[in-house]
Batch of 4 targets.
Target 1
Amino acid sequence: MAPSRTEKTLMAKDQVDSNKLHIAMFPWLAFGHILPYLELAKLFAQKGHRISFISTPRNIQRLPKLPPDLSPFINLVNLPLPSSSEFNLPNDAEATSDMSREQVPILKRAYDSLRDSLTDLLRSSKPDWLLFDFAAYWVPDMARDINLRNAYFSIFNAASLSFIGAEIPDTRTEPDHFIVPPKWVPFPSKIALRRFEVSKIFDDLSGGDGDVSVVYRIAKSLRGCDVVAVRSCWELESEWLNLMAHILGKPVLPIGQLPPTPYAGEVNDSWSTAKEWLDLQPKRSVVYVAFGSEVVLSQDELNEMALGLELSGFPFFWVLRGHSVELPTGFEDRTRERGIVWRSWAPQLKILGHESVGGFLTHSGWSSVVEALKFGIPLLLLTFTNDQGLNARLLEDKMIGYSVPRDEIDGSFTRESMAKSLKVVMVEEEGEVYREKAKEVSPIFGDMGVQNKYVDEFLAYLKSHSI
C-alpha cells in the first residue's frame, strides 16, 4: 500500500531532520570571542541545527537573551572553572573583562584545566562537530582521542591569522621581528605591528609571562584542527585566505563577517535617550567614539582625545565607561551644546545605524569594525592592544580606515593630530576615498544574504565531512 500524503510529509521531515547537525561550540573566555560564537550559533540554529554552547556559568548568565524561536535549538551548557583559590583568580572572574590585563594568563591556565571536564561532556553528548577557539590549542589532540571532528573557528581575520600563527616553531623571538611582515607572506604586504603596539603585547606573543604564547596557541590550533573557519569573506581577504590554505594544506573556509542580529528585549531606555539627542543632529555630522569594554585610557590619552574632539568642532557621542581618570577641566561645560559623554552601556549598533553618525573613532576591534561597516560608516583608527594593530593595517591597506598619527615608540598622539584626522575622515577631500570605500564594502559586512551564503557553504562542508 502506498504511503499517504501525511506519511510522506512525516517521512520527508524525518529525512530532513536526519541531516541536521549537533554542533558543540567552545569559545575563549572573552566577550569579544563569546559573542561572535553566539552569532554563529544563532545562524546555525536558524537552519534547524542543534547547538551546545559551552562556557562558564557566569558568562552564560551574562549572554544576551536569545530570540524565542531560536532558544530551543541552542543549549547553553555550564562548564565551571576550578575554584578561584586554585589559580588565584579574582572572585567571580570568568572573563577577561573581569580582571586586569596582567591577570589574563591566570585565566588561560584555568581555561586549560577544563580539558578533562570538556572531554567528559563531549564524550557523553556526542556532537557531530566541535568548534573551538585559539586558546584551547589542546582540543585537536583531545578530539582525536574521542573520535570527534573539530574546527578551529577564528574570530581573527585571515590576515591576522597569517601574521600570528602560520608557523611551528615560530622563529620570531625579538620585538623587532613583529614590526615587519613575516617571511612566509609571498606578496607585498603592510600587515605587521608597529613598535608601540608590539611593546604592549610582546609577552603575550612570546610567552614571556610564563604562559603558553598566543603565537603557539594559534599555530597549534591551525595545524591540529580538521578544518579552519575564519570570520572573513572572499570579497575582503581572498589573498590571505588562499595563503593560509596553501601554508596549512587543509581547507580554510570563510564564515562571513557575522554582523549582529537581534536578540530578545534589546530596546530600552538607553536607546530612547540616545536617539532623542541624535535626532537633533545634522545628517552624517556626528563622530561616534567607543573603544570596547576592555580598553582603559591613560590620563594623557584621555586629555588629548577630549581636547582633539573639542578642537575638531564636530558633534560627538563618546562612550566612556569604567574610567577612573578625569576629563580635562571645563571640557564637558564647553562642549555641552554639541557633545555627549555617555558613561554607561550604549546601544552601539543602533547608534551606528542612525543617519546623524558620519564617522567612528574606534580601537579597531573587529566586532566594532563589522558593526560600523554594516552601515557604511568611515573609520578613524586608534589601536591599543591584542589584534587591533593588525586589523588597522588591513583596513589601511584596503583604504577602508584612516589611522590617527602616533609616536612610533610610545604610541602617543596630540589633540591637533586627533582633530586633523577627524576632519580628514568626516569632511576633507583627502578622506573621500575612505568615505566611499566604507559605503562600497557595506554589503559584504551587513548583507544577510551574503552572510547566509557563507554559513550554508560551511554547513555543507560539515555535513559532508561528519564521521
Target 2
Amino acid sequence: MTSYQPLGYQPLAGKVALITGVSSGLGAATAKLFAERGATVFGIARDAERMAAVFADVPGGRHASFDIGRPQACRDAVEQCVAEFGRLDVLVNAAGYHQMRHTLTMTDQDWDDDLAVNLTGPFHLCRAALPHLLAAGGNIVNVSSVAGLEGEVYSSGYCAAKHGIVGLTRALAVEFTAERLRVNVVCPGGMSTPQVTEFAAPENADWNLIMRIAAPRGMMDPVDVAKAIAFLASDDAAAIHGSVYRVDNGKGAG
C-alpha cells in the first residue's frame, strides 16, 4: 500500500545532527536546511563569527568553534554535542578545504592541510561519533567531491583526500552492515561557494585544464547538494547504505 506523507512533514524531526563546516558554503546550507526539516543542529567550524551569523537562521541549534584537523578537537566536538542534546543521530562531514597547487610546487604543509580537513578530520569524527550513532540507529553522510571519483587538475592532495573519503565510507558500510547504522557519501560538482568563487589559480596555470572542471549546466547552489544530504540522513533513505551519490549538475553525464 502506498504511503503518502502529511502536509508539513518534517523528515528530520527528532534527530540531532552534528554538521561540520557550517560557517559558509555547503555546511551552512546544510545546517539551515536540516533545521527547516525538523532536526536539532549542532554545528562546528573554525570561524566563530561567521558561524554565529549562519546560526541566526538555525532555530534551536547550537554551534562551537573546533578545528577538525586536530583529533582531540573531533572527540571534544562529539562529546559536547551529546552533552548538550543527550544523543547523536546524524553526522555530516561537510567541511572542505581546497587550494589549487601544481604538484611540483606543493609543500609538505600543503599536502598535510589537504588531508587534515578533507580526510583525517572526518575519520576522527566518524570514530568518535560511532558509539553514539550505533546506540541511536543513526547514520553518517560524508561529503566527497567529483574529484573523489576522477582526477582534477592542480589538486593532487585534494583528489587523494576526496578519493579517501569515498573509500572510508565504503569500508565503514561493509564493517557495519549488520549494525543499526547507515553510511553514505555525496560527491558534489562545482558549487557557488566562497571556496570556489574566491579561489586563486597557480602561477602559469593552464586555464583550458581548469575550465574542464565546470559542469556544462553551470555551478550549483549549495542548497541543491544539501537536499541530497538531508534525504540520505532521513528515514526516507532507510534502505540506502554504502551508496555513492553524485550530485554534479550534469558534469558526469557526458
Target 3
Amino acid sequence: MLRASQLSKTYGTGNEATRALREVGLTLGKGEMAAVTGPSGCGKSTLLHVLGGLEPADGGEIWIGDEAVHRRREKELAALRLKRMGFVFQAYHLVPVLSAEENVQLPLLAAGMTRREAERKALEALELVGLAGKRRSRPSALSGGQSQRVAIARAVAGKPDILFADEPTGALDSEAADQVMGLLELMNRQYGMTLLLVTHDDRLAQRLPRQIRMFNGRIVEDREGATC
C-alpha cells in the first residue's frame, strides 16, 4: 500500500540546518496499523507530512499503490490526497462557521461528489463516530473529544486507502483519547484502511500491532506489538 525509500528532509541552511529525516525507508501493507513514536523533534511529524505529500522531501521516493507521490506537482498532489488519503491532526481544523455535517462534506465536495451524495456519506460517517445527533452543531458547541470525532468522520467519509493521524489525542484527556483510538481502530476494521499514527503516548501506541520508533531523523526500531 505505502512504500518509501531514502527519504531525506532538512530545514534551514548552513549552521542552522536541521536534518529532520535521514534516508528513512518504510513499507506499510494494506490494512496495516502502525504507530510512530520517539522524543520531540525526532522527525515523527515530518515523516507523516512528507509521506502524505503535505511537505516535499529533499530526496527519496514515496509510492501509494502504483502512484508516485514524489513525482506529483501540488495540484496533482491535492487530487491524490482527496482520492486516497485522510488526515487527522491534534488541532481539529474544523471551519467554525460550518456545522459538523458541513465540515465533513467539505473534502467530498472538493473531490467532485454531488451534494446529495456528500450529504449521505457525511451522515454515514457521523453515525459511525456516534455524532449523528450533533450534525447541525457548530464546533463551538462541541467538546474537544467530539470535535476530534468530527475530524475523524471528515477524514474517513471518502473511504481513503490510508489514514494519517498526527498526535490526534494530544489535546484530549485519557478517556477521550481512548475513545478516539477506539474509533481509529474501528475505521481500520470497518473500511480496511491503512493507519499510520504519530503519538508521544507509548500506552496508546502499544494498542497497535506495529510500533516504529524514531530518533534523530532515523527509524531505530520497527517491531510487532499488540494484536487487535
Target 4
Amino acid sequence: MESHPTISRGTVRCVTIVAGLILFYFLVLDTMVRPPVPQWLSFTDLDAADMGVPQLPLQSNSNGTSAVLIVSAMFPLEKSKHSKQDYEVWLKSFLGPITTDIYMFTTPELADTLRRVRGDKPIVIDTSYASPFEIPPLAGLEETYIKMNDMDKEKWHHSPGLYAIWNAKPFLLESAVNKLKEETGAVYEYAFWNDGGSFRRDHTYSGWPDPARVQQVWEEGSRLTGTKKEDLLFFPIFQLPEPQLKDWTEDMGPIANPVQLSEGSFFGGSPSTIAWFAKIFYAYHDYYISQGLFVGIDQDVFNALFLLYPQRMFTVWMNDPDAPAHQGVTESPSLIPSLERGFLGECGAEWYYYQFWLADYSTRNSMRRMWMKEERWRKSGWWKERTLCRLTRARSMMDILRTSFGVDWEPPRRNLEIPGQ
C-alpha cells in the first residue's frame, strides 16, 4: 500500500503563524511603512514629469468640425476572451466620459443600448452589418476562418467571429471616415480605431485624444521619420520584436511575436493614411490566406506590416530603457509583471499608456494624481519611492526595429503587387 506523508501539529501551527503575520502586514504594517502619498503635487513636479514638453494651441478644421474622430465596434459573440458583463462595464467607461466624436458599428439589437450609454454626447451608430463577416473584405470567408481556428494555439478562447472582428478594424475605420464625409460633409484631420473595451479602470479622460496633443506628436513623428504628417500611421507597441526576426521575409507570413510587439487596441492617422493602411492590410490578409497561413489575430498581421512599411509608421514604447523620461526611475514590479511595472512611474496598466500619452496637459495631471493615490499593497516594491507618471518620447518604427535588429537592418523586399502602391 502506498504511504502518504503526515502533517504534524507543529507544522500546522507554524503555517498558521506565518499566515497571520502576512495578514498583519497587509492590514497594518503596509499602511504604516508605505511612503506617503503627497496630498498636493506642485506644478513644478508636474511640469518635470512632462519633461518640459510645451503645450500647443488647439487645431481645428476650417469647416468647424472636430479634428479627431474615434471609431469602434461592438458585435456580440458566443465565445469571447471576456464576459459580457466585462464589456458592459468597459463600454460605459468609454462611451460615457469621452466627449470626442464617436462612430460605432454594432448590430441592430444593441443600437439602443449604446445610445443610452452614450447619452447626449456625439455618436453615430451604424447597424449596416449584423456580423463582421458581412463587411466586404471578409464576406464569404466564414468557412475559411472556421478551418483556421484549428491552427490557433489559443483556440480555447478564440473563435472565427472574434478573428473577423479583429480583422474588420482597418475597413471599419476607413468606412466611417468615408461615410461621414459623403453623408454629412464632415472632414476629420485624424481618425483612430479604439477597441470598445480599452477603458478598463477609472479615469478622467474626456476630450481624448486631445487634438493639440495629436498635432504635437505627429509633428514629432514627421521629424523622426522624414515622412509628411498626412502619410504617417501611429501604432503603440508593447515590446521590441525578437532579434531573430531580422531575417523575416514577406512570404513567411504574420508574426506571432511571443512578447507582444503590436498593440492592436488603438491606431490611426489622416484619412489618406487610413485608406492606404486598409489597402495593404487586406492585400496581405488575402495573400497569406491563399498561402494557407493563419491570419486570425490582427496583431500578427500588423507586426508583419511594421517590418514591411516602417518608414510610414511611428510609435510610443513605454518600456524604452534609453528614453530620457526613464532615467532615474526605479521599476516597481507588480504581482502581474506584464501589466504594471512602473517603468515611467505610477502610470497604471502599461498596455494603455497611449491613453495618457495622447491626453492634454491638465488631464495627464489629473491621471497622475489618481494613480498616486491608488493603494500599493497589491504590488511588490511598495517600499520604493513612488514617481509621477512621466511623458516619454515618440519613436520612429524604423528606429525601434533597428534597436532590435541592428543599425544596418533594412526592410525586407516587398514582392506582393498591390494596385496603387
